[in-house]
Amino acid sequence: MSEVSEVFTPRNIIVTGGAGFIGSNFVHWVVDHHPETHVTVLDALTYAGNLDNLAGIPSDRMDFVKGDICDAELLDEIVPGHDAIVHYAAESHNDNSIADPEPFVRTNVVGTFRLLEAVRKYGIRYHHISTDEVYGDLALDDPAKFTEETPYHPSSPYSSTKASSDLLVRAWTRTYGLRTTISNCSNNYGPYQHVEKFIPRQITNILTGVRPKLYGAGLNVRDWIHTEDHSSAVWTILTKGRIGETYLIGANGERNNIDVLRMILRLMGQPEDAFDHVKDRPGHDRRYAIDATKLRTELGWEPVHTDFESGLKATIDWYANNPQWWEKTKAATEERYKRQGQ
Ligand code: NAD
Ligand code: TDX
User: Is residue 7 part of a domain?
Assistant: First the structure.
């Protein structure tokens, strides 16, 4: 049994990747719920980062630093004076990792190494954001779900770099006594998700008169969680989690892709068969499923967005009402997919 942590009250945190989909949701969540906490966002603003995601945050609550997590000198400049790093920055898309894995090794593995070295040097807390994909996949008819004890078995270049980064955190914690926690979350959905990902891609396809694209037969299962529930879980783990521990985050949201796509089509007033089957993803994981008992029972966390259909409807409305947010990236994203035959 590892050390029982006292409740940690972070006053001045760095959020890496805070201009991305999930990181920016966490920044808003902290600003809205914790007036005592100041946030410094460190983000390289890659194709996936967007400062508009942080619009409306008062300047006395957040500083923004444009920079690369692999830049050790920059970390020496900005880390002192902070009491924790919450590390979201990553190359996050499986299909991109299959087309070009190198940025994934650099940002996800080397970037995490640089942050851990800075945490070691300045003696601050560190929370590591990871994914359920590190556990590989489950068979469609397997009653099992992933737990914190499931062996690592990643399938894609993306998930293998995330698994590598988790292992670095564990080793730095044991060897150097770093004060860390790790969370592995299932598939997120909600506003501000890049149009390369499944749900926003299909919504914005329909909005632009393009038929949605389903990989293979569409029987693959993902365990969906609203990104706000992910944010509340991360705050819970950062403040109450036991040092050195891993917590799985999930909200019992298992659904197969074809059912999600049909729901999107129905909610958008389209025939449920108005989509194309396209080439499957190489190595496509069949099913993810999270058992979040440890997080729920030990730390008392509960999701609030438990009605997937109403969360999906609100997400569709957000994309329909905010075309200026996604239109500039849509064409380039679809060009990339076209080259991959998807
Ligand atoms: P995203 O691609 O939307 O955002 C990633 C952010 O990181 C961007 O703002 C980007 O500019 C920034 N970034 C990338 N490389 C950087 C670098 N070298 N230095 C500094 N900043 C850099 O990703 P997301 O979907 O918001 O995912 C965030 C985190 O959550 C990732 O660690 C991902 O592995 C994890 N995660 C995602 C999901 C999901 O469903 N999307 C599920 C579980 C875990
Ligand atoms: O056009 C598509 N058609 C399709 O059928 C796309 C983009 C995806 N899919 C399928 C592939 C997956 O089975 O939909 C499912 C979800 O795909 P993604 O949105 O690419 O997510 P996934 O590969 O499951 O990974 C996501 O969840 C775990 C995030 O992108 C990761 O960052 C996170 O770690």
Answer: no
Rounded Cα gap, residues 236 and 35, in angstroms: 16
Residue whose Cα lies nearest atom 27 of ligand 2: it is 187
CATH number at residue 237: 3.40.50.720
Is pLDDT at 98 greater than 80 in this prediction? yes
State the total domains in the chain: 1
**What digits encode the pLDDT tens for the residues 120-135?**
999 999 999 999 999 9
- Residue written as tokens 């989690």? 241
Ligand 2 atom nearest 284 alpha carbon: 13
Beta-bridged to residue 66, according to DSSP, are: 43
Domain of 41, in residue numbers:
12-194+224-252+283-306
Neighbours of 309 (CB within 10 A): 10
Whether 196 is a known active-site residue: answer no
Query: Does 120 reside within a domain?
Result: yes
Q: Is 69 close to ligand 1, i.e. is its CB under 6 Å away?
A: yes
Contact 252, 236 (CB under 8 A): no
